[in-house]
Every structure is written in structure tokens, then in C-alpha cells.
Prior knowledge:
binds S-adenosyl-L-homocysteine, alpha/beta, Rossmann fold, binds nicotinamide-adenine-dinucleotide, 18 helices
Amino acid sequence: MSIIKDIGLAPSGHIKIDWAKKHMPVLNAIERDFIKTRPFSGKNILVSVHVEAKTAYLALVLKSGGANVAVAACNPLSTQDDVAAALCDSGVETFAVHGADDELYYKCLEKGLETRPALFIDDGGDLVHMLHTKRQDLMEGILGGSEETTTGVARLIARDKRGELKIPMMLANDAMMKHLFDNRYGTGQSVFDGINRTTNLIVAGKCVVVAGYGWCGKGASMRAKGMGARVVVTEIDPIKAIEAVMDGFEVMTMDEAAKKGDLFITLTGCRDVITKKHFDVMKDGAVMCNAGHFDVEIDVKSLRDTSTSSYEARHNIEGFTRPDGRTLYLLAEGRLVNLAAGDGHPAEIMDMSFSVQAMTLKYILDNSADLRPGAYRVPAEIDGYVAGIKLSSGGVSIDSLTPEQEKYLYG
Length: 411
Ligand code: NAD
Ligand code: SAH
């Protein structure tokens, strides 16, 4: 039995899914193929990704491929209740409620696993963690899974290195057709979509501090610059720091940046990037948000504990009054601002990420006899396949090597 807020919200969810579907040509092509070939016939699949329109369309494509699909939230604030209702209405068991507390959030994951999936998609590693700890009893029958995001991949590799990964897991985030576009251009745009619609404040002329100059940080810095901000980058990796300098950004420690920033965006996958010592020196009115990992990049607990009071400054914005009278603002409780205060990455981006996911699940199924427990890269053929359809659907043709050129290059 699904756990959702209200099935009556389904009509609005269906409208959102239809819009997303119209802007996801690669997944449209995969859906047409899956309808003919039914690769997942009779298999149970669990999708634990942000429950919004693009994810819903992925679930429906897998269903068109013959699977019994269940969907579970991967973040308590990113669920859109109308989309969850539409999924349910389309015959997809759904376990997701916007604003779920920790207990309900983990119950939803558990209920998802209790559907006994043969294949699953994880986003951040919560499912894999649950399967290796509290619910090891549900491991049997799992052929493998696929991980959507950078932090989840890091956790998988660490677990694999310790020799503790008990199922085959594909690192979908590390596919070129995923992180090159999703993490960089997707995050770059959707972070500002979330910030701008939530604050309704100007970016031009502000000092925007971006913590982390990985794929996501590059995207956010590029977009902040494009909107007229002065961008400061903080890093712990000297090479990434040089890259940021060469890209034209100021680089400094967070201790320094804390005094200068008007808007702070954390994108590191690390914890405690902005802490009390930073709150103590920030400008009155500074705005903070996170788009990296769960809700641990900004030390929200200490912000709460050391402020004299807090109030709802605007929907999704909490204002914290500091002992000296300054006010600091936190967006979306320090959870992913692009998903908890926006609709996440645009459809054209998730089209590529989710096409990689759909093809990766098919790959696990086709190769399950050979896949041992461990972390695996997505085969380059899947990147090539997704890139090919993406280009042709946009009417773009590229050159191909002549036999002479091929010989010249590769001997
Ligand atoms: P990445 O590994 O490419 O980049 C992270 C960067 O942060 C690295 O350069 C690292 O050196 C730096 N860093 C680590 N700790 C730091 C610290 N304490 N201070 C400053 N810099 C620090 O990873 P990525 O692909 O850019 O992803 C970053 C995070 O965003 C991950 O948690 C990932 O799961 C998440 N993510 C979110 C979205 C979204 O939609 N919001 C999309 C993709 C990835
Ligand atoms: N589940 C964790 C981990 C970060 S999620 C958390 O919520 O904190 C980051 C992932 O969200 C990215 O890798 C990206 O692919 C995915 N994402 C971004 N926009 C999305 C969207 N519109 N729909 C579904 N997933 C999205």
C-alpha cells in the first residue's frame, strides 16, 4: 500500500509529468524501444530518487518496459505530493510525503525495499546503507542497483574498498552523460532557480560565495558570474582552487569569505563547511543555502542553538536572530535548495541522467550472471548511445572519421 499525502492531487501531478515528458526526447526514444522489447518483463524495480515530474516519467518508462515499479523518496523535502499522487494513480506504488519527519522518511525507504526489487536506483546511498545494516534480510533476490549522485558513489567506493559491498552497484553519476551535464549545467541553473524564486532578491552586484569547485560548484559559479555577481570560491583541493583562479574567481578560506559574502552556496559533499565561527562574522542579512549533500554542509543545529530566536521570513526561508542583533537567513532548512525550494534540474538535463539510469538497469539485468558484488563503471557504450540520441533529437549532426583518419589516429 502506497504512502502518499492525497490521491486527489493526481490531476496536477499528471500535468507536470506530461510537460516533463515532452522535453525528454532521449527517454522518449528509450520508452518506444522498451514498449516493443519489454526488457524488464515481470521484474520489480525500486526508484529512490527525488519524487518530482522527471523521476515520475522515468518510473513510467521502466513500467512501459514491463517492470513492476515502486518509487520511494530520497529526501524528505523534495517530494512533490501531486506527482506522488499521479504516480500512484498510474499504478506505481509510491512511498513519499513532502515534509516527512525522519521516522516517516526511513519508513518510506523500508517500504520501498519491502517490494523486493530485483533492480533499484539509489540517490545518496541511503538504500544501500539500509540494505547492509537494518534490512539485510531484503538483500536476497537483488541483482544490482545504480547510484545517482557523487556522494552516493563515494560511499559505495568506500564500502567496496572495505570489502563490505554485497551487491553489484553501477556508478551512474560517473558516466560522462550524467555528471558533465547534470552536476554542472543542471545544478548551475536549478540552484539559482531555487534561490531566486524563494528569495525574490537580486543576484547582480552581490558577493556570492561558492563552497566547493567540483562539477556542481563550477556550474553554480559560472551562473552566478553570468548574473552579475562577484564570485568567491572556497576549496580544500589545491588543483581545483587553481582551476577556480584561472576561471577568474577569487579563492580564499571560508573564514575569510564568511565576512564578505551576501549569498553562500555549499556544494562540497562534505560536512560542517559553514559553522558557528562563520555565523559569528557574517554580514547582517547574509543568505545561506546548500545544494550538496543532505543537510550537513551548513551546521544548522548550531545555527539554531546559538541564535536567540528564529522566524519564517518567507516560505522556505528561516531568519535567525543572532545574539548581537544580526539576522542570518537559511533557505530550505539547509537541504538541497534546488529540489527542496525548486523543481530540481531542468527536464532536458534529467533526460540524459535518467536515460543513463534506464540503460544501466537494463545492462545489470542483461549481465547479472557475470556481475559479482562490487562497484562498476557504466560502460562507455551507454554514454555513446545516450549522446547519439541526444544529438539527433536536437537535429545536430557531427563528423565521423574516414578510414584514413582512423588509421592516422589509431594506427
Ligand atoms: P565533486 O567531487 O566534483 O566536487 C566537490 C568539491 O568540493 C571538490 O572539489 C572538493 O575538493 C570540494 N570540497 C570538499 N570538502 C570541502 C570543504 N570542506 N570546503 C570546500 N570545498 C570542499 O562533487 P560534485 O559532483 O560537484 O557534487 C558535490 C555535491 O553535490 C555532492 O554531495 C553531490 O552528491 C551533490 N550533488 C547535488 C546535486 C543537486 O541537484 N543539488 C546534483 C549533483 C550532485
Ligand atoms: N538524496 C541526497 C543526495 C543528493 S541528490 C539528498 O537529497 O540530499 C543529488 C541528485 O539529485 C543529483 O545527482 C541529481 O541527478 C538529482 N536531481 C537533480 N534534479 C533532479 C530532478 N529534477 N529530479 C530528480 N533528480 C534530480
